[in-house]
Amino acid sequence: MFTERFNQILDKIGASPATLSSYAGFDRTNISRIKSGTRIPKISSPTANKLSRAIYLFSKEHRTYKKLCKAVGIPARLSEADAEIMILKWLYEGDEIVSPSEAGSLKASRKQKREAFGDRFSVLMELADISNKRLSQLVHADPSLISRYKKGIRTPISNPELSLQISEILFERITSSGKLHELSELMKCPEGEIDEEALGAWLYDTDGRETDEAIAAAETFLDIFDSFRPGNTSMLPAPEDILSDIPSSDDYVYIGTKGLRSAVLRFLAAAVSEHARELYLYSDENQDWMTGDPSFLLKWASLMSALVKNGTKIIIIHNLDRSLSEMNDAIKSWLPLYMSGMIESYFCRKLRNNRFSHTIFLNPESGCIKAFHAMGSLEKKIYHYYTEKRLLEICMDEYRFLLKNSSPLIRAVSPHLLPEVSNVTIVQDSLSLSTMSRELVESFNSPALAKQWEKYSASFLGKLESNYIHECIPIADSEALSNGRVPIWQPQGVEKLFYTPEQYEMHLRDIKALSERYENYRFYPLPESPFPNIELIVSDTLTKITPASRPGFSFAFTHAPMCRAFMDYVNTLINGI
Questions:
Q1: What percent of the chain stands above pLDDT 90?
Q2: Is the model's pLDDT at 311 over the cut of 80?
Q3: Of the candidates 224, 167, 223, which has an alpha carbon nearest to the alpha carbon of residue 529?
Q4: Residue 37 is part of a domain; what is its CATH number?
Q5: Residues 318 and 404 reside in one and the same domain
Q6: Strand ranges in 174-267 using DSSP code E only, listed in sequence order
Q7: Range of the domain at 172
Q8: Is the pLDDT of residue 98 over 50?
Protein backbone atom coordinates (compact mmCIF):
# COMPACT_ATOMS: atom_id res chain seq x y z
CA MET A 1 0.00 0.00 0.00
CA PHE A 2 2.83 2.41 0.83
CA THR A 3 4.49 1.99 -2.58
CA GLU A 4 1.18 2.41 -4.41
CA ARG A 5 0.32 5.56 -2.47
CA PHE A 6 3.81 7.00 -2.81
CA ASN A 7 3.66 6.67 -6.61
CA GLN A 8 0.14 8.09 -6.62
CA ILE A 9 1.20 11.18 -4.70
CA LEU A 10 4.19 11.78 -7.01
CA ASP A 11 1.83 11.73 -9.98
CA LYS A 12 -0.61 14.10 -8.27
CA ILE A 13 1.98 16.77 -7.48
CA GLY A 14 4.00 16.26 -10.68
CA ALA A 15 7.31 15.34 -9.01
CA SER A 16 9.95 13.11 -10.60
CA PRO A 17 12.09 10.88 -8.34
CA ALA A 18 15.16 12.95 -9.19
CA THR A 19 13.50 16.25 -8.30
CA LEU A 20 11.93 14.97 -5.09
CA SER A 21 15.31 13.55 -4.04
CA SER A 22 16.83 17.05 -4.18
CA TYR A 23 14.08 18.36 -1.88
CA ALA A 24 14.59 15.48 0.55
CA GLY A 25 18.38 15.68 0.43
CA PHE A 26 18.72 12.09 -0.83
CA ASP A 27 20.58 10.40 -3.65
CA ARG A 28 17.96 10.00 -6.40
CA THR A 29 18.60 6.23 -6.53
CA ASN A 30 17.16 6.08 -3.02
CA ILE A 31 13.85 7.60 -4.21
CA SER A 32 13.87 5.25 -7.21
CA ARG A 33 14.15 2.22 -4.89
CA ILE A 34 11.26 3.53 -2.79
CA LYS A 35 9.21 4.17 -5.92
CA SER A 36 9.81 0.64 -7.23
CA GLY A 37 8.96 -0.93 -3.88
CA THR A 38 12.41 -2.46 -3.33
CA ARG A 39 12.76 -0.27 -0.25
CA ILE A 40 10.09 0.83 2.22
CA PRO A 41 11.42 3.14 4.96
CA LYS A 42 10.23 2.58 8.50
CA ILE A 43 7.55 5.03 9.54
CA SER A 44 9.64 6.18 12.52
CA SER A 45 12.78 6.73 10.43
CA PRO A 46 14.33 10.09 9.46
CA THR A 47 13.86 9.04 5.82
CA ALA A 48 10.05 8.86 6.19
CA ASN A 49 9.93 12.29 7.84
CA LYS A 50 12.14 13.79 5.13
CA LEU A 51 9.89 12.30 2.43
CA SER A 52 6.76 13.90 3.86
CA ARG A 53 8.54 17.25 4.20
CA ALA A 54 9.88 17.03 0.64
CA ILE A 55 6.38 16.25 -0.71
CA TYR A 56 4.95 19.22 1.19
CA LEU A 57 7.67 21.68 0.08
CA PHE A 58 7.60 20.54 -3.55
CA SER A 59 3.82 20.91 -3.81
CA LYS A 60 3.99 24.39 -2.26
CA GLU A 61 6.76 25.63 -4.55
CA HIS A 62 5.22 24.11 -7.70
CA ARG A 63 1.61 25.19 -6.97
CA THR A 64 0.24 21.67 -6.70
CA TYR A 65 -0.55 21.89 -2.96
CA LYS A 66 -4.33 21.99 -3.61
CA LYS A 67 -4.05 18.69 -5.51
CA LEU A 68 -2.06 17.26 -2.60
CA CYS A 69 -4.68 18.42 -0.08
CA LYS A 70 -7.47 16.85 -2.11
CA ALA A 71 -5.62 13.52 -2.47
CA VAL A 72 -4.54 13.25 1.16
CA GLY A 73 -7.48 15.00 2.80
CA ILE A 74 -5.52 17.87 4.35
CA PRO A 75 -7.88 20.54 5.74
CA ALA A 76 -7.42 24.16 4.68
CA ARG A 77 -5.09 26.35 6.80
CA LEU A 78 -3.41 23.41 8.46
CA SER A 79 0.08 24.16 9.84
CA GLU A 80 3.14 22.92 7.99
CA ALA A 81 4.07 20.41 10.73
CA ASP A 82 0.54 19.01 10.93
CA ALA A 83 0.29 18.76 7.14
CA GLU A 84 3.52 16.73 7.04
CA ILE A 85 2.16 14.35 9.70
CA MET A 86 -1.07 13.91 7.69
CA ILE A 87 1.01 13.06 4.61
CA LEU A 88 2.81 10.38 6.65
CA LYS A 89 -0.49 8.99 7.97
CA TRP A 90 -1.90 8.80 4.46
CA LEU A 91 1.22 7.11 3.04
CA TYR A 92 1.33 4.46 5.75
CA GLU A 93 -2.47 4.27 6.16
CA GLY A 94 -2.85 4.15 9.92
CA ASP A 95 0.57 2.96 11.06
CA GLU A 96 1.82 4.57 14.24
CA ILE A 97 3.14 8.07 13.57
CA VAL A 98 6.04 9.74 15.36
CA SER A 99 4.63 13.00 16.72
CA PRO A 100 6.68 16.19 17.11
CA SER A 101 6.72 15.60 20.87
CA GLU A 102 8.72 12.41 20.27
CA ALA A 103 11.43 14.23 18.33
CA GLY A 104 13.68 14.12 21.39
CA SER A 105 13.91 10.33 21.18
CA LEU A 106 15.02 10.56 17.54
CA LYS A 107 17.73 13.04 18.56
CA ALA A 108 18.81 10.69 21.34
CA SER A 109 19.13 7.78 18.91
CA ARG A 110 21.27 9.91 16.59
CA LYS A 111 23.49 10.86 19.53
CA GLN A 112 23.85 7.22 20.57
CA LYS A 113 24.62 6.18 17.00
CA ARG A 114 27.42 8.75 16.61
CA GLU A 115 28.85 7.98 20.05
CA ALA A 116 28.61 4.24 19.30
CA PHE A 117 30.71 4.63 16.16
CA GLY A 118 33.48 6.49 18.01
CA ASP A 119 33.52 3.89 20.80
CA ARG A 120 33.43 0.91 18.42
CA PHE A 121 36.10 2.36 16.17
CA SER A 122 38.41 2.99 19.16
CA VAL A 123 37.93 -0.56 20.47
CA LEU A 124 38.58 -2.10 17.04
CA MET A 125 41.78 -0.08 16.60
CA GLU A 126 42.97 -1.28 19.99
CA LEU A 127 42.07 -4.88 19.12
CA ALA A 128 43.88 -4.53 15.78
CA ASP A 129 46.86 -2.98 17.60
CA ILE A 130 47.14 -0.15 15.09
CA SER A 131 47.95 3.52 15.67
CA ASN A 132 46.26 6.56 14.20
CA LYS A 133 49.35 7.29 12.14
CA ARG A 134 49.67 3.76 10.71
CA LEU A 135 45.99 3.47 9.80
CA SER A 136 46.09 6.91 8.18
CA GLN A 137 49.05 5.80 6.06
CA LEU A 138 47.25 2.64 4.93
CA VAL A 139 44.08 4.49 3.88
CA HIS A 140 45.91 7.62 2.64
CA ALA A 141 44.18 9.95 5.11
CA ASP A 142 45.36 12.56 7.58
CA PRO A 143 46.08 11.18 11.11
CA SER A 144 43.95 13.99 12.57
CA LEU A 145 40.95 12.61 10.64
CA ILE A 146 41.42 9.22 12.31
CA SER A 147 41.52 11.04 15.64
CA ARG A 148 38.21 12.76 14.85
CA TYR A 149 36.69 9.39 13.97
CA LYS A 150 37.73 7.99 17.37
CA LYS A 151 36.15 10.97 19.13
CA GLY A 152 32.90 10.49 17.21
CA ILE A 153 32.78 14.00 15.72
CA ARG A 154 33.27 12.66 12.18
CA THR A 155 32.27 9.41 10.51
CA PRO A 156 33.49 7.91 7.22
CA ILE A 157 29.99 7.00 6.01
CA SER A 158 30.10 9.85 3.51
CA ASN A 159 33.06 8.12 1.80
CA PRO A 160 32.06 4.52 0.94
CA GLU A 161 35.51 3.66 -0.45
CA LEU A 162 37.26 4.83 2.72
CA SER A 163 34.66 3.07 4.91
CA LEU A 164 35.33 -0.21 3.11
CA GLN A 165 39.11 0.23 3.32
CA ILE A 166 38.97 0.81 7.08
CA SER A 167 36.78 -2.23 7.80
CA GLU A 168 38.95 -4.44 5.52
CA ILE A 169 42.21 -3.35 7.18
CA LEU A 170 40.87 -3.75 10.71
CA PHE A 171 39.37 -7.16 9.90
CA GLU A 172 42.59 -8.41 8.30
CA ARG A 173 44.78 -7.28 11.22
CA ILE A 174 42.43 -8.68 13.86
CA THR A 175 42.13 -12.10 12.17
CA SER A 176 45.85 -12.37 11.32
CA SER A 177 46.73 -11.70 14.97
CA GLY A 178 44.41 -14.52 16.12
CA LYS A 179 41.87 -12.25 17.83
CA LEU A 180 38.76 -13.34 15.94
CA HIS A 181 37.33 -14.85 19.15
CA GLU A 182 37.59 -11.46 20.93
CA LEU A 183 35.96 -9.78 17.90
CA SER A 184 33.16 -12.36 17.99
CA GLU A 185 32.46 -11.57 21.64
CA LEU A 186 32.57 -7.84 20.94
CA MET A 187 30.14 -8.06 18.02
CA LYS A 188 28.03 -10.78 19.71
CA CYS A 189 28.22 -12.74 16.48
CA PRO A 190 29.46 -16.31 15.73
CA GLU A 191 33.02 -16.38 14.36
CA GLY A 192 31.91 -18.16 11.18
CA GLU A 193 29.55 -15.31 10.26
CA ILE A 194 32.12 -12.51 10.59
CA ASP A 195 33.71 -11.04 7.47
CA GLU A 196 34.63 -7.51 6.25
CA GLU A 197 31.02 -6.77 5.33
CA ALA A 198 29.63 -7.91 8.68
CA LEU A 199 32.31 -5.92 10.52
CA GLY A 200 31.50 -2.82 8.48
CA ALA A 201 27.76 -3.18 9.17
CA TRP A 202 28.47 -3.47 12.92
CA LEU A 203 31.02 -0.63 12.97
CA TYR A 204 28.93 1.86 10.99
CA ASP A 205 25.63 0.68 12.51
CA THR A 206 24.00 0.21 9.09
CA ASP A 207 22.72 -3.37 9.44
CA GLY A 208 18.95 -3.19 9.07
CA ARG A 209 18.80 0.53 9.86
CA GLU A 210 18.05 3.68 7.90
CA THR A 211 21.09 5.60 6.71
CA ASP A 212 20.59 9.34 6.82
CA GLU A 213 21.70 10.25 3.30
CA ALA A 214 21.28 14.00 3.88
CA ILE A 215 23.78 14.03 6.76
CA ALA A 216 26.23 11.89 4.80
CA ALA A 217 25.93 14.23 1.79
CA ALA A 218 26.46 17.34 3.93
CA GLU A 219 29.54 15.80 5.57
CA THR A 220 30.92 14.91 2.13
CA PHE A 221 30.46 18.45 0.81
CA LEU A 222 32.07 19.98 3.90
CA ASP A 223 34.99 17.57 3.65
CA ILE A 224 35.63 18.68 0.04
CA PHE A 225 35.79 22.32 1.14
CA ASP A 226 37.87 21.47 4.23
CA SER A 227 40.45 19.43 2.30
CA PHE A 228 40.76 21.90 -0.58
CA ARG A 229 44.13 23.60 -0.97
CA PRO A 230 44.80 26.31 -3.55
CA GLY A 231 46.28 24.40 -6.46
CA ASN A 232 49.52 25.33 -8.10
CA THR A 233 48.49 26.37 -11.62
CA SER A 234 51.99 25.45 -12.80
CA MET A 235 50.85 21.82 -12.45
CA LEU A 236 48.36 22.40 -15.26
CA PRO A 237 49.33 22.39 -18.93
CA ALA A 238 50.21 25.88 -20.16
CA PRO A 239 47.19 27.44 -21.95
CA GLU A 240 49.48 28.49 -24.80
CA ASP A 241 50.49 24.88 -25.44
CA ILE A 242 46.86 23.76 -25.48
CA LEU A 243 45.86 26.58 -27.82
CA SER A 244 48.63 25.68 -30.26
CA ASP A 245 47.50 22.02 -30.30
CA ILE A 246 43.85 22.75 -31.10
CA PRO A 247 43.35 22.73 -34.88
CA SER A 248 41.22 25.46 -36.40
CA SER A 249 37.84 24.15 -37.45
CA ASP A 250 34.65 25.28 -39.14
CA ASP A 251 32.77 22.10 -38.21
CA TYR A 252 29.18 22.60 -37.16
CA VAL A 253 28.46 19.01 -36.04
CA TYR A 254 30.37 16.88 -33.50
CA ILE A 255 29.52 13.25 -32.69
CA GLY A 256 29.75 11.41 -29.36
CA THR A 257 31.79 12.05 -26.22
CA LYS A 258 35.05 12.43 -28.14
CA GLY A 259 33.37 14.94 -30.42
CA LEU A 260 31.98 16.91 -27.46
CA ARG A 261 35.44 17.14 -25.90
CA SER A 262 36.85 18.46 -29.17
CA ALA A 263 34.03 20.99 -29.43
CA VAL A 264 34.55 22.15 -25.82
CA LEU A 265 38.30 22.67 -26.35
CA ARG A 266 37.54 24.69 -29.49
CA PHE A 267 34.89 26.68 -27.59
CA LEU A 268 37.15 27.47 -24.60
CA ALA A 269 40.18 28.20 -26.76
CA ALA A 270 38.18 30.78 -28.73
CA ALA A 271 36.94 32.36 -25.50
CA VAL A 272 40.52 32.59 -24.11
CA SER A 273 41.93 34.04 -27.34
CA GLU A 274 39.13 36.61 -27.63
CA HIS A 275 39.18 37.55 -23.91
CA ALA A 276 35.45 36.79 -23.85
CA ARG A 277 33.42 38.95 -21.48
CA GLU A 278 30.91 36.27 -20.44
CA LEU A 279 30.19 32.58 -20.88
CA TYR A 280 26.83 30.89 -20.18
CA LEU A 281 26.89 27.17 -19.35
CA TYR A 282 24.23 24.52 -18.78
CA SER A 283 24.21 20.74 -19.17
CA ASP A 284 22.11 18.05 -17.53
CA GLU A 285 23.83 15.05 -19.10
CA ASN A 286 26.25 12.69 -17.35
CA GLN A 287 29.52 14.42 -16.45
CA ASP A 288 31.72 11.58 -17.67
CA TRP A 289 32.47 13.62 -20.78
CA MET A 290 34.38 16.03 -18.50
CA THR A 291 35.68 13.88 -15.63
CA GLY A 292 36.14 10.53 -17.43
CA ASP A 293 39.34 11.48 -19.26
CA PRO A 294 42.12 12.86 -16.96
CA SER A 295 44.03 14.32 -19.91
CA PHE A 296 40.98 16.25 -21.13
CA LEU A 297 40.12 17.38 -17.59
CA LEU A 298 43.60 18.94 -17.20
CA LYS A 299 43.17 20.83 -20.47
CA TRP A 300 39.67 21.95 -19.43
CA ALA A 301 40.96 23.17 -16.05
CA SER A 302 43.87 25.03 -17.66
CA LEU A 303 41.66 26.88 -20.15
CA MET A 304 39.02 27.66 -17.51
CA SER A 305 41.73 29.06 -15.23
CA ALA A 306 43.00 31.17 -18.11
CA LEU A 307 39.49 32.55 -18.64
CA VAL A 308 39.24 33.48 -14.97
CA LYS A 309 42.62 35.26 -15.15
CA ASN A 310 41.37 37.14 -18.22
CA GLY A 311 38.41 38.40 -16.17
CA THR A 312 35.78 36.38 -18.03
CA LYS A 313 32.56 36.11 -16.04
CA ILE A 314 31.12 32.57 -16.05
CA ILE A 315 27.41 31.99 -15.46
CA ILE A 316 26.47 28.37 -14.88
CA ILE A 317 23.13 26.69 -14.17
CA HIS A 318 23.98 23.52 -12.25
CA ASN A 319 21.88 20.40 -12.55
CA LEU A 320 21.09 19.10 -9.05
CA ASP A 321 19.27 15.98 -10.30
CA ARG A 322 22.46 13.96 -10.06
CA SER A 323 23.82 11.20 -7.84
CA LEU A 324 25.87 12.28 -4.83
CA SER A 325 29.09 11.00 -6.44
CA GLU A 326 28.44 13.11 -9.55
CA MET A 327 27.74 16.20 -7.46
CA ASN A 328 30.91 15.58 -5.46
CA ASP A 329 32.95 15.32 -8.67
CA ALA A 330 31.39 18.56 -9.90
CA ILE A 331 32.24 20.42 -6.70
CA LYS A 332 35.85 19.16 -6.78
CA SER A 333 36.24 20.26 -10.40
CA TRP A 334 34.65 23.67 -9.97
CA LEU A 335 35.90 24.65 -6.51
CA PRO A 336 39.21 26.22 -7.66
CA LEU A 337 37.22 28.35 -10.10
CA TYR A 338 34.70 29.37 -7.43
CA MET A 339 37.62 30.59 -5.34
CA SER A 340 38.28 33.21 -8.02
CA GLY A 341 34.94 34.91 -7.38
CA MET A 342 34.28 34.99 -11.15
CA ILE A 343 31.56 32.29 -11.12
CA GLU A 344 27.83 32.92 -10.79
CA SER A 345 25.93 29.68 -10.19
CA TYR A 346 22.22 28.88 -10.26
CA PHE A 347 19.86 25.91 -10.22
CA CYS A 348 16.71 25.71 -12.32
CA ARG A 349 13.40 25.56 -10.44
CA LYS A 350 11.53 23.96 -13.35
CA LEU A 351 11.05 20.19 -13.49
CA ARG A 352 13.63 18.33 -15.52
CA ASN A 353 12.39 16.20 -18.42
CA ASN A 354 13.60 12.65 -17.82
CA ARG A 355 13.22 11.68 -21.48
CA PHE A 356 15.71 14.15 -22.96
CA SER A 357 18.90 15.88 -21.89
CA HIS A 358 20.13 19.31 -22.97
CA THR A 359 23.44 21.15 -23.28
CA ILE A 360 24.06 24.84 -23.94
CA PHE A 361 27.62 26.21 -23.75
CA LEU A 362 27.36 29.78 -25.03
CA ASN A 363 29.77 32.58 -25.80
CA PRO A 364 27.38 35.27 -27.11
CA GLU A 365 30.19 36.85 -29.15
CA SER A 366 31.48 33.87 -31.12
CA GLY A 367 30.01 30.40 -30.59
CA CYS A 368 27.63 27.97 -28.94
CA ILE A 369 27.63 24.20 -28.40
CA LYS A 370 24.05 23.00 -28.29
CA ALA A 371 22.56 19.50 -27.93
CA PHE A 372 19.17 17.90 -27.40
CA HIS A 373 19.01 14.13 -27.27
CA ALA A 374 17.29 11.15 -25.65
CA MET A 375 18.43 10.27 -22.14
CA GLY A 376 20.63 7.21 -21.79
CA SER A 377 24.01 5.87 -22.72
CA LEU A 378 23.81 6.57 -26.43
CA GLU A 379 27.27 6.58 -28.02
CA LYS A 380 26.53 8.70 -31.07
CA LYS A 381 25.01 11.87 -29.67
CA ILE A 382 24.93 14.91 -31.93
CA TYR A 383 26.37 18.26 -30.77
CA HIS A 384 25.84 21.34 -32.93
CA TYR A 385 28.37 24.18 -33.00
CA TYR A 386 26.82 27.50 -34.00
CA THR A 387 28.76 30.62 -34.95
CA GLU A 388 26.19 32.62 -36.92
CA LYS A 389 25.19 35.78 -35.03
CA ARG A 390 21.45 35.26 -35.59
CA LEU A 391 21.60 31.75 -34.10
CA LEU A 392 23.70 32.91 -31.14
CA GLU A 393 21.01 35.48 -30.30
CA ILE A 394 18.36 32.73 -30.32
CA CYS A 395 20.54 30.58 -28.01
CA MET A 396 20.95 33.60 -25.70
CA ASP A 397 17.16 34.01 -25.54
CA GLU A 398 16.84 30.35 -24.52
CA TYR A 399 19.46 30.74 -21.80
CA ARG A 400 17.76 33.88 -20.48
CA PHE A 401 14.54 31.87 -20.17
CA LEU A 402 16.39 29.26 -18.10
CA LEU A 403 17.89 31.97 -15.89
CA LYS A 404 14.48 33.54 -15.33
CA ASN A 405 13.34 30.22 -13.86
CA SER A 406 16.48 29.69 -11.78
CA SER A 407 17.62 30.67 -8.30
CA PRO A 408 21.14 31.29 -6.93
CA LEU A 409 22.93 28.14 -5.79
CA ILE A 410 26.40 29.19 -4.62
CA ARG A 411 27.58 32.77 -4.56
CA ALA A 412 30.55 34.65 -3.23
CA VAL A 413 29.62 36.79 -0.21
CA SER A 414 31.38 39.00 2.29
CA PRO A 415 32.65 37.02 5.29
CA HIS A 416 31.87 39.93 7.58
CA LEU A 417 29.16 39.66 10.19
CA LEU A 418 26.30 37.14 10.31
CA PRO A 419 24.09 36.44 7.29
CA GLU A 420 20.68 38.09 7.18
CA VAL A 421 18.80 34.99 8.26
CA SER A 422 17.09 33.84 11.43
CA ASN A 423 18.54 31.19 13.75
CA VAL A 424 22.14 30.16 13.09
CA THR A 425 24.65 27.54 14.19
CA ILE A 426 28.37 28.34 13.97
CA VAL A 427 31.05 25.64 13.66
CA GLN A 428 34.67 26.85 13.67
CA ASP A 429 38.12 26.21 15.13
CA SER A 430 38.54 29.39 17.27
CA LEU A 431 36.44 31.25 19.83
CA SER A 432 34.43 34.01 18.16
CA LEU A 433 35.54 37.62 18.21
CA SER A 434 31.88 38.55 18.81
CA THR A 435 31.83 36.86 22.24
CA MET A 436 34.76 38.85 23.64
CA SER A 437 34.09 41.52 26.25
CA ARG A 438 35.37 45.05 25.69
CA GLU A 439 37.87 44.55 28.51
CA LEU A 440 39.35 41.49 26.77
CA VAL A 441 39.54 43.24 23.38
CA GLU A 442 41.36 46.21 24.90
CA SER A 443 43.90 43.89 26.55
CA PHE A 444 45.27 43.03 23.07
CA ASN A 445 46.15 46.73 22.52
CA SER A 446 45.15 46.61 18.83
CA PRO A 447 43.05 49.51 17.44
CA ALA A 448 42.31 47.47 14.29
CA LEU A 449 40.96 44.59 16.38
CA ALA A 450 38.85 46.94 18.51
CA LYS A 451 37.33 48.51 15.39
CA GLN A 452 36.37 45.12 13.92
CA TRP A 453 35.04 43.91 17.28
CA GLU A 454 32.59 46.82 17.43
CA LYS A 455 30.96 45.67 14.17
CA TYR A 456 30.95 41.95 14.91
CA SER A 457 29.72 42.29 18.47
CA ALA A 458 26.87 44.65 17.51
CA SER A 459 25.69 42.23 14.79
CA PHE A 460 25.97 39.23 17.12
CA LEU A 461 24.10 40.81 20.04
CA GLY A 462 21.48 42.29 17.72
CA LYS A 463 20.67 38.84 16.35
CA LEU A 464 20.46 37.38 19.87
CA GLU A 465 17.62 39.78 20.67
CA SER A 466 15.24 37.79 18.49
CA ASN A 467 17.00 34.62 17.29
CA TYR A 468 19.14 31.84 18.67
CA ILE A 469 22.86 31.41 18.02
CA HIS A 470 24.54 28.09 18.75
CA GLU A 471 28.34 27.83 18.63
CA CYS A 472 30.28 24.56 18.29
CA ILE A 473 33.96 25.25 18.98
CA PRO A 474 36.81 23.17 20.48
CA ILE A 475 38.55 24.38 23.64
CA ALA A 476 42.26 25.13 23.16
CA ASP A 477 44.94 22.74 24.39
CA SER A 478 46.57 23.96 27.62
CA GLU A 479 50.08 23.22 26.36
CA ALA A 480 49.51 25.27 23.21
CA LEU A 481 48.16 28.11 25.38
CA SER A 482 51.19 28.04 27.65
CA ASN A 483 53.48 28.22 24.62
CA GLY A 484 51.58 31.17 23.13
CA ARG A 485 50.43 29.20 20.07
CA VAL A 486 46.64 29.74 20.25
CA PRO A 487 45.60 32.51 17.85
CA ILE A 488 42.46 34.59 18.24
CA TRP A 489 39.81 34.48 15.53
CA GLN A 490 41.38 36.80 12.97
CA PRO A 491 39.20 39.28 11.10
CA GLN A 492 40.46 40.66 7.82
CA GLY A 493 42.89 43.54 8.18
CA VAL A 494 43.99 42.61 11.72
CA GLU A 495 47.47 41.33 12.53
CA LYS A 496 47.78 37.79 13.87
CA LEU A 497 47.36 37.87 17.66
CA PHE A 498 47.72 35.10 20.24
CA TYR A 499 46.05 34.50 23.60
CA THR A 500 47.85 34.40 26.88
CA PRO A 501 46.41 31.74 29.22
CA GLU A 502 44.83 34.56 31.26
CA GLN A 503 43.20 36.12 28.18
CA TYR A 504 41.81 32.77 27.06
CA GLU A 505 40.36 32.12 30.51
CA MET A 506 38.78 35.59 30.40
CA HIS A 507 37.21 34.76 27.03
CA LEU A 508 35.67 31.57 28.46
CA ARG A 509 34.23 33.63 31.31
CA ASP A 510 32.81 36.08 28.75
CA ILE A 511 31.12 33.16 26.95
CA LYS A 512 29.65 31.87 30.21
CA ALA A 513 28.31 35.36 31.07
CA LEU A 514 26.79 35.66 27.58
CA SER A 515 24.97 32.32 27.93
CA GLU A 516 23.58 33.43 31.28
CA ARG A 517 22.40 36.74 29.84
CA TYR A 518 20.79 35.30 26.70
CA GLU A 519 18.72 32.12 26.91
CA ASN A 520 18.94 31.70 23.14
CA TYR A 521 22.76 31.58 23.11
CA ARG A 522 24.36 28.14 23.53
CA PHE A 523 28.03 27.20 23.47
CA TYR A 524 28.94 23.55 22.74
CA PRO A 525 32.62 22.67 23.39
CA LEU A 526 33.82 20.17 20.80
CA PRO A 527 36.55 17.63 21.63
CA GLU A 528 38.14 18.61 18.31
CA SER A 529 37.15 20.61 15.25
CA PRO A 530 35.43 18.37 12.66
CA PHE A 531 36.54 20.66 9.81
CA PRO A 532 39.53 22.75 11.00
CA ASN A 533 40.11 24.44 7.64
CA ILE A 534 36.69 26.04 7.21
CA GLU A 535 34.31 28.22 9.19
CA LEU A 536 30.68 27.23 8.90
CA ILE A 537 27.52 29.24 9.56
CA VAL A 538 24.30 27.30 9.00
CA SER A 539 20.62 28.20 8.95
CA ASP A 540 17.52 26.75 7.30
CA THR A 541 17.80 29.12 4.33
CA LEU A 542 21.50 29.93 3.98
CA THR A 543 24.79 28.14 4.64
CA LYS A 544 28.02 30.16 4.60
CA ILE A 545 31.44 28.51 4.25
CA THR A 546 34.65 30.49 4.72
CA PRO A 547 37.83 28.58 3.75
CA ALA A 548 40.93 29.24 5.85
CA SER A 549 42.95 29.10 2.62
CA ARG A 550 41.10 32.16 1.32
CA PRO A 551 40.61 34.68 4.17
CA GLY A 552 38.19 37.45 3.33
CA PHE A 553 36.16 35.22 1.01
CA SER A 554 33.02 33.16 1.71
CA PHE A 555 30.59 30.96 -0.21
CA ALA A 556 26.85 31.07 0.44
CA PHE A 557 24.59 28.11 -0.41
CA THR A 558 20.93 29.10 -0.77
CA HIS A 559 19.42 25.88 -2.11
CA ALA A 560 16.87 24.93 0.59
CA PRO A 561 17.35 21.11 0.52
CA MET A 562 21.13 21.53 0.75
CA CYS A 563 20.76 23.97 3.66
CA ARG A 564 18.49 21.51 5.47
CA ALA A 565 21.11 18.79 4.96
CA PHE A 566 23.79 21.04 6.50
CA MET A 567 21.40 21.86 9.35
CA ASP A 568 20.78 18.15 9.97
CA TYR A 569 24.52 17.59 10.12
CA VAL A 570 25.23 20.32 12.70
CA ASN A 571 22.22 19.21 14.78
CA THR A 572 23.66 15.70 14.83
CA LEU A 573 27.00 17.17 15.88
CA ILE A 574 25.32 19.08 18.72
CA ASN A 575 23.30 16.05 19.83
CA GLY A 576 26.54 14.10 20.18
CA ILE A 577 28.03 16.60 22.66
A1: 39
A2: yes
A3: 223
A4: 1.10.260
A5: yes
A6: 253-255
A7: 110-211
A8: no
